[in-house]
Design goal:
It contains eleven helices and twelve strands. With about 300 residues, the protein is α/β, with parallel strands linked by helices. The strands form two sheets. Strands 3, 4, 5, 6, 7, 8, 9, 10, 11 and 12 form a ten-stranded mixed beta sheet that branches. A two-stranded antiparallel ribbon has the order 1-2.
């Protein structure tokens, strides 16, 4: 029975996601390559590791045992890298960060700038994910630092305040909603939306609509908050963006916006690391920078 670190990372990603498709994406593999690796793992050990069903996958007893040891091995590897990294001088290194849409677009660019300039030997691998996925990835050792909602399954994490992310609805200045300071999400669902293309925030919004028994009526999906604000300002539909983005674009775009009063629309974001992780000096330095008092 021979499993390498790639196998172990893939297996944990799959069981944490409850899906081979999503686990493969988290591990940076194609679905066929991931499926073949999982089959090879089971064949080499002559043991069934996953129950496969229409609703996803779950670990067998053998799979639970493998997951337990895989987490321990990967945490030990992270500690080893951290300890050895303390003696490495002048070598390039990479810090893996997972963050939600608002953090990636609105908060991190400014926060990272000064630190990256002062640490030219360090590269940042930044990926956008939803908060529950970020918590699972940190626990599995797939990321060094996460920016996530403080409510997303964070028992194994060390969290520090990072920012407050408030969502607002943006619309044309002559819209029926113009002049309102607050709106409930349910009030918007009879209108057409301008959404984000393949973003964690868009998936979050669509999930909230499903909980109300409705569906987001999407007219078009764009890649940026600026595009959403410009098109909403022209009366093409309603957009939902972070308040920081709305305030920025209102300086140059004729539009109006109102805060969403729903509890889920105000998120207290935290920077998190796994409680058992041994960060490299560079990653520890960046974590301290992102959570410094002057950044909160």
């Amino acid at each position: 029975m021979r499993f390498d670190l790639v196998d172990l990372r893939l297996f944990l990603a799959v069981i944490d996601a409850g899906s081979i498709t999503h686990g493969a994406a988290e591990a940076g593999m194609s679905l066929p390559a991931a499926s073949e690796r999982l089959r090879d793992m089971e064949a080499s050990g002559e043991v069934l590791l996953l129950h496969r069903g229409r609703r996803g996958v779950s670990p067998t007893e053998a799979g639970e045992a493998l997951a337990h040891h895989a987490r321990a091995i990967l945490h030990q590897m992270a500690q080893m890298r951290g300890e050895i990294g303390r003696y490495a001088k002048g070598l390039r290194s990479t810090i893996r960060i997972l963050a939600n849409t608002a953090a990636v677009s609105e908060f991190l660019p400014e926060r990272l700038g000064a630190w990256m300039r002062a640490n030219p030997q360090v590269d940042i691998e930044l990926k956008e994910r939803q908060s529950p996925d970020i918590a699972r990835a940190l626990a599995a050792g797939f990321a060094d630092i996460g920016i996530l909602s403080s409510t997303a399954g964070t028992e194994e994490l060390i969290l520090r305040p990072f920012a407050i992310d408030r969502l607002v609805a943006v619309f044309a200045p002559d819209h029926d909603f113009a002049g309102k300071k607050q709106l409930r999400f349910a009030e918007l669902l009879d209108h057409h939306f301008i959404g984000l293309m393949d973003g964690a925030l868009q998936r979050h919004i669509e999930m909230q609509a499903m909980r109300l028994g409705a569906k987001v009526r999407l007219r078009v999906a764009l890649r940026s908050f600026g595009g959403i604000c410009r098109l909403a300002g022209k009366g093409a539909g309603i957009g939902i963006v972070p308040e920081t983005a709305a305030r920025h674009w209102k300086r140059t775009v004729r539009m109006d916006f109102a805060r969403l009063s729903d509890e889920w629309a105000t998120r207290h974001l935290s920077a998190g690391i796994h409680s058992g992780a041994e960060l490299t000096p560079a990653a520890q330095s960046l974590f301290e920078h992102l959570t410094a008092d002057n950044c909160a």
